[in-house]
Amino acid sequence: MHSLLLVSTAGLLAGAMNALAGGGSFISLPALIAAGVPPVQANASSTVALFPGGLASAWAYREGLGAGLGNRVGDGLARGLGSRSIKRSEQTNAVSLRALLLTTLCGGFVGAALLMATSSAAFSFVLPWLLLLASLALAFGRRLGEALRSRWPIRARAVLAVQFALGIYGGYFGGAVGIMMIAMWGLLDTRDLKSLNAPRTLLVSAAYAVAVLTFIVAGAVRWPETLAMLTAAGIGGYAGAQLGRRLPAAVIRTGTLALTFCITLVFFARTYAPGLLQR
Question: Topology with regard to the membrane (predicted)?
């Protein structure tokens, strides 16, 4: 009963955090581990628990995707990325949303399969570094694309290769993967960030959907804890959305970054401090 209360509270906070700024897995994953779920199962269960909230966000953004996923950029957001940052004669380098979607699905499956092949000891060892990577993405990801685009614009093949890698990351761990996608797309496209929310949400949900199916088939989900967290995350997501309308963006961002970096430091200490103290 105590563990279910813990994961329910974490789900409430994680759902609210995802609605406000992202990074809900920083709450849900540590809570599941603290509740006694082995790290690999905890990561799988966290992904399943938070997936419906992301799916609801993708549905909310459906109008921003338009009707067609297979056309090139030039006439609308739904048709891909890259039209505003390349010359008209080079628009064959634009990336269609369909290509990004298929690439992300493949990467998500590979990432989920890799997680299933990872031992709990190995995952515990790399988890602090994954949390650090996600923290840095939350802190600097949105500025990275703008800073790099002026120096190293990239072509469609490179975008798809990086998107495949991000799909793997999303299926394996997934923390702040949406921010990473926007940072990468910033190398190819000059649209404002708000207009990229629709494809970002769709592709993150695609990576998670493949991972969720893989985890369920592999029997890697702890259902009592997952269902409790899933229900609470839905409530937290709604409450977070309402709260986000009232709180200043700077307050939300500062609080989110402070929390994520603190949790990252705790996991570094938890993983590596015992070994250092024995020396």
Answer: Multi-pass membrane protein
